[in-house]
Amino acid sequence: MRQTLEALLAGWITHQRWFAGKGRAINDLAVEAATELPLRDLAESFHSDVAGSRGTTDHARQADTGQVTVRHIVITVSQDGHTDRYQLLLGFRPVLPQRLQHVSIGETDDGCVYDALHDADVTGLLLSWLATDADIGPLRFRHLPGAEIDTSPRSLVLGAEQSNTSLVFGDAYICKLFRKIVPGVNPELEVVTALADRGSPNIAKPYGWIEADVGGENTTLAFTQEFLRTASDGWALALTSVRDLYGSLPGTRAGDAGGDFAAESNRLGMATAHLHAELAAAFPTSTIEAPEVKRMVEGFRRRLDSAIGEVPELGPLAHVAHEAFDRLADTGRPITVQRVHGDYHLGQVMRTPAEWVVLDFEGEPGQPLRERRALDSPLRDVAGMLRSFEYAARHLLADHPEAESLLPRAEEWARRNREAFIAGYSAGGGRIEGDDAVLLRALELSKAAYEVVYESRNRPSWLPIPLAAFSARTTA
Ligand SMILES: Nc1ncnc2c1ncn2[C@@H]1O[C@H](COP(=O)(O)OP(=O)(O)O)[C@@H](O)[C@H]1O
Ligand SMILES: O=P(O)(O)O[C@H]1O[C@H](CO)[C@@H](O[C@H]2O[C@H](CO)[C@@H](O)[C@H](O)[C@H]2O)[C@H](O)[C@H]1O
């Protein structure tokens, strides 16, 4: 049965990994802006490519794309009296070819609707438009001065667990489309370009971005960087190490197992300290005094209360966090603040043969842009990574038949890698001294409160991982 586009999207969006409003009813979904993309460029690019190796299949595809319309769409989604914007790239065809059936959204009077980010014939145009700084209706495609963009690679949608959607073009570029759009320049563009200007080795080279005016502000819609083709992400590497430990003989300590990760955790700590030094040099820094520290603690308490409102199991454990927050409020010590990563975890770092490289500087996707760009303690990132070691250690225990006997191993792995990371951070010039342990503990528990909400909305079976942070067993 044919439905309106809005009704189709309301059903489809709730199943998308990147939809941030899961678990809450949609009261209204409306199309705010729709820009038809000029596919004549597509036919031209096919003609110019007949001599290439893609020639034969592209002839077939050219016929296939003859009646395609592709629209860049911004929708507004209202839930609980709150409205968010998301961006989509939708294709419309009379009939969906086999290769696109897995991304079908449904049928409207305009034809079969599908997620055109999976249509490599169409997405190739994005690179051409970046290379030429094209303006397509309200969409502005821009590349960085001096960045040469090869427009030939075809794209695949990255299959990662993501808050956004990334297209990987050959092994050259990765273009991330920010799904939830918040008016303003995305911190990722701002930070990565500033660090690239300083020659930082800990970021992936930026190439370009897409922007448009949204809500009256210049807003980043997508960001293209170098694809780190020889790198492995920190989460996958850490899990390999944990798996190795779980598979080793009873009594084996993390440091004696073949896949010990501590040396890498140590290097990651050093890279993190270097990154913080670069951020402190590229952006302003400041100090917050006791009254502001108290306000920060109030913010932690509000986040905790709201997490309890959404996940009641947290209620009986919350005193652990309140005690840590009280201690922080009582220290009365000033805190140095600067630009930070803001959502730092093992999935945001990649090990290249030379370095740890840091990705995804956009902060916690659920927070307002103003907060994500605010100066903060660099220990917020340290706390994020410490939480991530806990996640890596515990995540394989879910549904594991020997979970109980493996728990001490998980705890030992987490402790060893947390300590190695902190040692590396200090060796790299990062400052953790005096009462910083109190701040670090409060930041970790505040992050865990965020994670409780994140998991309950996105991956309910992972909820026990952040909840465990509130047990008395977790050490500072
Ligand atoms: N420059 C890159 N090179 C290679 N892989 C990347 C790159 N950027 C991101 N990735 C991969 O994509 C995943 C998700 O990227 P991320 O920026 O964290 O997206 P999101 O904001 O949607 O969570 C990363 O964990 C990593 O595996
Ligand atoms: O999508 P982002 O990478 O910006 O971050 C969000 O998703 C993360 C999960 O993909 C989430 O991180 C949590 O899970 C990780 C394991 O998958 C773990 O390493 C992190 O420590 C944990 O916080 C992140 O919180 C969320 O903002």
UniProtKB/TrEMBL annotation:
Which keywords accompany this UniProt record? ATP-binding, Carbohydrate metabolism, Glycogen biosynthesis, Glycogen metabolism, Kinase, Nucleotide-binding, Transferase
List the pathway annotation. Answer: Glycan biosynthesis; glycogen biosynthesis
Q: Which GO terms describe its molecular function?
A: ATP binding; kinase activity
Which SUPFAM superfamilies does the record cross-reference, listed alphabetically?
Protein kinase-like (PK-like) (SSF56112)
Query: What region holds the Maltokinase N-terminal cap domain?
Result: 12-38, 63-119
Q: Name the EC number(s).
A: 2.7.1.175
| Gene3D superfamilies linked | 3.90.1200.10
- One Gene Ontology term from the biological process aspect of the record: glycogen biosynthetic process
| Reaction catalysed by this enzyme | D-maltose + ATP = alpha-maltose 1-phosphate + ADP + H(+)
EC supergroup of this enzyme: transferase
Q: Which InterPro entries match?
A: Kinase-like_dom_sf, Mak_N_cap
Keyword DNA-binding appears in the UniProt entry: no
Q: Which Pfam families match?
A: Mak_N_cap (PF18085)
- Binding partners and assembly: Monomer.
**What is stated as this protein's family in its record?**
Belongs to the aminoglycoside phosphotransferase family.
Protein name per UniProt: Maltokinase
Question: What organism is listed for this UniProt entry?
Answer: Sphaerisporangium melleum
Source organism lineage?
Answer: Bacteria, Bacillati, Actinomycetota, Actinomycetes, Streptosporangiales
